[in-house]
Each structure stands twice: as C-alpha cells, then as structure tokens.
Amino acid sequence: MSNTHIALLCATRRGFLVLQKLIALAPSAKLVVISFKEEPCEPAFFDDIRTLAERHGHRFYEARQLGGERWRQFWEETPLDLMLVVSWRYLIPETVFRLPAHGTFVFHDSLLPSYRGFAPTVWAIANGEDHTGATLFEIAADMDRGPIVAQQRVLIGSDDTIAAVMTRVTEAYLVLLAENLPLLLAGHAPRVIQDELQATYTCKRLPNDNRIDWKHSATQIHNLIRAATKPYPGAFTEFQGQRLTVWAARPLPDFRRYIGVVPGRVVEVRPGEGAVVLTGDGALLLSEVQLEDGAVLCAAEVLHSIAHTLGV
C-alpha cells in the first residue's frame, strides 16, 4: 500500500480510534488527516488526532469548510484513492467527495435507512429502542442516502447509558473498517441501494431538548436521562430557581400508586440512595444530580424534603 493515498475527515475520540486503526491496517499508506477543534463543552480530541497523525508522518490539517478557493489547489494537487469520514459535522462539497478514485465512504451511527440525520444514538436511546447499529456507506448528495457497504447491529439494554452504547458503536466502526478496507481500496466494495420507503430522520438536538417534562412517563424520562448523560450535557430540570442536571435515575415500577399526582413532586427521600419523584404515570428514583456550578451529589442531599417540586 505504499502508493495508496487516503484522506480521513474525523473528529471526537471515535475519530482518533479510527485513525489509530487505519494506521495499523495500512501502515505504508499515505494519509491526509483533517479535523477541527472541539467545542468547549465536549471532551478534547483535536490535539490527540493531530499528534497521532504527525507522529506517524502523515499530513494533518485543521478545517471545517473544505471547498472554495482556499482548498482548490490543495485538492487538485493531492492524489486520493479513498476518503473516509468519521464524526464529521460539516458539508463536504460534491466537488471534493467525488475526487477519490474509489470513492468517499461515511460511518454512521444507525442501521440505515433508519435514523438518518443528527445524533442518531441519542435519539435511539431517548426513543427507547432496543438496538442501534453502525453503517458504512458511500456518500451521496442527499443526507445519509448513499448505497450501503456494510452494517453491524448494536444492542441497547434498558438501562444502558449513552457512553456504553457509543463505545459499542465505535467498536462496530472498527470492525467494519477492518473487514472492508481491502475491498474499498480495491474498488470492489459492495453497494446496496437504500430502501427509501423505510427511511426515517432525526432532528438536530438543541440544548432545550434535554429539558425534563415531568408529565411524561417514567420510562420516557428515564430514557432521556440515560441518552443525555455524560459525556453529554445531561437532562435537566428547574429546582428553586436553579438548573438541576439529573445524571442518573431509574424507574420504580412497583412504587405505590398515586391518584393525587403532582408531576415533579418529591414524595420520598432515601438517604444515601436518592429521591423519589413523581412522573406522569409513576415514579423515578433520582440518584445523581448537580446544581448549577455545583458538585455531583446523591439526590437525597439536594432533594431532601417532600415539599420540593421540580420543573417549576
């Protein structure tokens, strides 16, 4: 592979791991690695990706936009056999993704054509799905619509958090890369057209989407909490005029049945364990919470009275 040229557009810890795997799988290939700096609210990845690429003698660039005059000469002078895209957040112009001799291929966090779009793993957990997946597909002009090369199913347990599921999806990425890189480089990768009748889409998530509505069911709220928890900003509510982030909770299906219900009301404090809060159809035991600029605490240390109501 000494004459093989691969571009990798990547970000996040997942991008770092894919780069690491790509270097191991194709040690003599010449790589062009492009990434961008992380947002202040997310775990660092940019310096790790840059250091890894440069340590192995590969070219590294920082960029978000890959078109325009600034990049025209670069792309014209850079031979490419293959382009891979991992956790990339910005538009890749068709004039760019058409350049590699054997195509441009994207890793996506779902079993396409389901969950096209933004934050598919977060949405899958929030929606209570029992599985998600990883898909390797050829890029197309329309979002997540290109032909599929390979897929791997990833299970979601009823209590799994986003961190656990993302780890499994990342492992699936690495398996898909290892199994399909030789075919991609040879130009012989299979391509299966997606069934548009089965396509579903997800919205871009905004900060307020993680606000807890206590009128929802205990299951819905629990799903939101585990979908939005670390390393993400967390599901939140209001408590005594402050933002209260709920990092961990669990439903209490056998808790006593209330017919005088105030959703969001604390109805039991369990020292060392947490606080029981009513929902639209039952109760949740909140275990780990955090007030604005405070430490993560057992919920019983913050919600210590049955006179407390959340979300007001």
Average pLDDT: 96
Shape: elongated
Unreliable stretches covering 5 or more consecutive residues: none
Number of strands: 15
N-to-C CA distance = 62 Å
Description:
With 312 residues, this protein is α/β, with parallel strands linked by helices. It contains eight helices and 15 strands. The strands form three sheets. It has a seven-stranded mixed beta sheet with strand order 3-2-1-4-5-7-8. Strand 12 (266-270) and strand 13 form a beta hairpin. Helix 1 packs parallel to helix 2, helix 1 (12-25) runs parallel beside helix 6 and helix 5 (120-126) runs antiparallel to helix 7. The chain is elongated. The model has no long low-confidence stretch (mean pLDDT 96).
Blueprint of the fold:
Elements: E1 5-10, H1 12-25, E2 30-35, H2 46-55, E3 59-62, H3 69-77, E4 82-86, H4 94-97, E5 104-108, E6 116-117, H5 120-126, E7 131-138, E8 148-155, H6 162-186, E9 201-202, H7 218-228, E10 235-239, E11 242-251, E12 266-270, E13 274-278, E14 283-291, E15 296-298, H8 299-302
Parallel strand pairs: 1-2, 1-4, 2-3, 4-5, 6-9
Antiparallel strand pairs: 5-7, 7-8, 10-11, 11-14, 12-13, 13-14, 14-15
